[in-house]
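Regression test case RT-17, inverse folding.

Input:
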């Protein structure tokens, strides 16, 4: 009996070794077949090899072989290819990525012979997740690769979707020396165009570069266009002769344009002022350009437009109260695909098109598909890059003397939005103002939320600002001062009415004068701010908001007449008006306190690492005796902490014991009662690229 068992085991082991040897040999055959298909176009010799590999007992290997076999069979007709794809869906459903690609090919080939209609409904699946997922990418026409910028090297890299591997296509850039910005596959998948920023003779330049896409090595790039200001690269024309770009002018305005692949000559199609598009897409026949753009200079509401490539006719094809983001054209040019953000989330829509105009009402194709468009494969599958890090607002009651909680654990402030931060309490303690927005990769618009402390009800205003941060409430709690950028690209300080969200410019930046760290003085008519050309120096200035009269209080920085006051940023005056705090971030992080007349200065806190303190996040306690600070840990991966730093000599800083790990590098606020604080906490980071499949099948219904 033992001998029989031993012989059986020996035979089984020998059979396993034989099968293993066969599978290794078939793996080599698969690579040989792929080489014949991709480099030589020899389908006749490749197909028998793939049929043999498909007999392997290694199911992932067999599924890969069948997928390549189906692609080869498509060159000779659709019937055999359809049967092969159906076999993958039927027999290899556990190989999810391979089966999904087979379903996508079936949708592109038309109605299958025996597959059910339900199997071809639009479906969403994740093809790449993890910390290495880029914020943006572009899919190859065959759906096999994703080209993107490597955020560690700032070179161009490519992801093999099925194999789950990534490799560099170009070298990277030295720290602080620019690098790649965007990348896109050519329509035949044989080239990659990418934008590259570089510095020459102290000036910054942007380039359009092209490289051959190959399976190994780093081919030398060809520079086809260069300009001194910034540019954004989008995608190629269907004939591979033009590349759609957004060219920034010296004054910051933007031109929608084409770059010739052959000679690099730009052709400006439309000037859009200080607005900028998130996506440009050329129609398959090359006669139309679709783009998304804010409707005017005073709103973030984004509509979708189509213009003829001669520039003669422009049409708004999708315009609504929601915000839309363009995805691209279907392969037949009959639909424009776009994302629409509403209170129910982000959904995928299709707008029927005819001769450059909307042809009927748009139809919804799929729900809950937020993300930054990453291209459409030849089969019609839509790829989306989703960068999700929602931010919650928290409040806690603390003893700022001991650093201990004075009540229960910190509680989340109920809000309507996915991301909430930069909180500021009104001087009367009745209102909490903060910045709100949707998910990070959604079509994004910032809102000002004003929440009642008594009822918890919040009013939300869409400001006429593209970006902003609340800095301070006036003494009478009737006006907010903020820093921001309007929809014409102008940066500066703004006054906001918290009752209706109306915005009035206070001071706009120029090339010779910039304004930092606005905050209110002891009265409701004076704003204090730092005036200079950089964030580390300049004059602390008081401005009367009614008359415009200004008064310089003192100067800081190495160039100042008073060498006792070093270069500082984020200067903020104490509630009693006697002291001014600010900090220098490099080479060590140092917190300074200066008397408001600039007569005396001293250091009150130091961390032995650069940029340890959050920008624009110094908050005085109501009694003017200490500062609340957002501080990084002693190592790069250590969580951030909140510290109370007394300004009186002899008192030691205290770390607040809040029991939270993911405190955001963001603003903080202290209630006028001196006991409550508000701050932001980030949820775990989630990065992934998803694909929406079978969209073309849905449009045919």
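Golden output:
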């Amino acid at each position: 009996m033992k001998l029989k068992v031993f012989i059986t085991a020996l035979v089984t082991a020998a059979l396993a070794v034989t099968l293993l040897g066969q599978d290794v040999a078939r793996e080599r055959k698969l690579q040989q077949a792929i080489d014949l298909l991709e480099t030589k176009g020899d389908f006749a010799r490749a197909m028998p090899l793939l049929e043999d590999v498909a007999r392997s007992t290694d199911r992932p290997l067999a599924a890969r072989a069948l997928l390549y076999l189906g692609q080869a069979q498509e060159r000779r007709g659709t019937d055999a290819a359809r049967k092969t794809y159906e076999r993958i869906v039927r027999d290899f459903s556990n190989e999810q990525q391979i089966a999904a690609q087979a379903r996508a090919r079936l949708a592109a080939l038309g109605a299958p012979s025996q597959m059910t209609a339900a199997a071809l409904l639009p479906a969403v699946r994740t093809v790449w997740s993890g910390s290495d997922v880029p914020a943006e990418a572009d899919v190859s026409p065959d759906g096999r690769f994703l080209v993107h910028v490597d955020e560690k090297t700032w070179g161009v890299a490519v992801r093999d979707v099925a194999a789950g591997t990534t490799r560099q296509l170009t070298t990277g850039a030295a720290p602080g020396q620019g690098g790649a910005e965007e990348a896109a596959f050519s329509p035949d998948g044989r080239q990659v165009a990418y934008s590259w920023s570089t510095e020459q003779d102290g000036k910054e330049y942007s380039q359009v570069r092209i490289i051959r896409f190959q399976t190994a090595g780093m081919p030398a790039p060809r520079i086809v266009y260069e300009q001194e200001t910034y540019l954004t690269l989008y995608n190629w024309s269907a004939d591979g002769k033009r590349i759609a770009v957004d060219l920034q002018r010296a004054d910051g305005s933007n031109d929608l344009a084409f770059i010739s692949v052959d000679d690099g000559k730009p052709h400006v199609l439309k000037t859009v002022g200080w607005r900028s598009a998130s996506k440009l897409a050329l129609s398959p026949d090359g006669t139309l350009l679709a783009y998304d753009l804010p409707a005017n200079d005073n709103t973030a509401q984004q509509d979708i437009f189509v213009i003829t490539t001669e520039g003669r006719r422009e049409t708004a094809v999708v315009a609504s109260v929601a915000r839309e983001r363009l995805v691209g054209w279907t392969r037949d040019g009959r639909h424009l695909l776009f994302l629409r953000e509403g209170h129910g989330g982000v959904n995928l829509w299709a707008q029927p098109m005819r001769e450059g105009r909307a042809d009927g009402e748009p139809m919804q194709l799929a729900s809950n598909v937020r993300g930054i468009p990453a291209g459409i494969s030849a089969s019609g599958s839509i790829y989306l890059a989703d960068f999700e890090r929602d931010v919650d607002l928290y409040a806690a009651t603390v003893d700022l003397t001991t650093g201990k909680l004075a009540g229960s654990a910190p509680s989340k402030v109920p809000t309507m939005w996915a991301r909430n931060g930069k909180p500021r309490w009104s001087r009367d303690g009745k209102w909490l103002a903060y910045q709100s927005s949707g998910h990070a990769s959604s079509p994004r618009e910032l809102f000002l939320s004003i929440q009642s402390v008594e009822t918890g009800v919040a009013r939300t205003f869409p400001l006429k600002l593209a970006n902003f941060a609340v800095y301070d409430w006036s003494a009478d709690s009737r006006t907010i001062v903020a820093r921001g950028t309007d929809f014409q690209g102008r940066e500066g300080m703004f006054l906001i009415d918290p009752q209706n969200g109306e915005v009035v410019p206070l001071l706009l930046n120029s090339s010779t004068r910039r304004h930092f760290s606005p905050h209110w003085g002891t009265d409701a008519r004076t704003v204090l701010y730092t005036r200079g050309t950089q964030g580390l120096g300049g004059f602390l200035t008081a401005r009367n908001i009614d008359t415009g009269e200004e008064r310089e209080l003192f100067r800081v920085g190495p160039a100042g007449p008073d060498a006792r006051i070093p270069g500082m940023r984020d200067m903020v005056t104490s509630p009693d008006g006697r002291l001014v705090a600010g900090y220098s971030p490099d080479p060590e992080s140092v917190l300074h306190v200066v008397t408001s007349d600039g007569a005396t200065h001293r250091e009150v806190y130091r961390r032995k690492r650069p940029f340890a303190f959050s920008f624009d996040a110094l908050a005085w306690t109501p009694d003017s005796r200490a500062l609340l600070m957002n501080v990084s840990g002693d190592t790069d991966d250590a969580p951030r902490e909140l510290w109370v730093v007394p300004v009186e000599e002899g008192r030691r800083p205290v770390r607040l014991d809040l029991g939270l790990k993911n405190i955001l590098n963001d603003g903080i606020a202290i209630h006028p009662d001196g006991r409550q604080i508000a701050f932001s906490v980030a949820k775990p980071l989630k990065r992934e690229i998803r694909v929406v499949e079978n969209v073309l099948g849905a449009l045919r219904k």
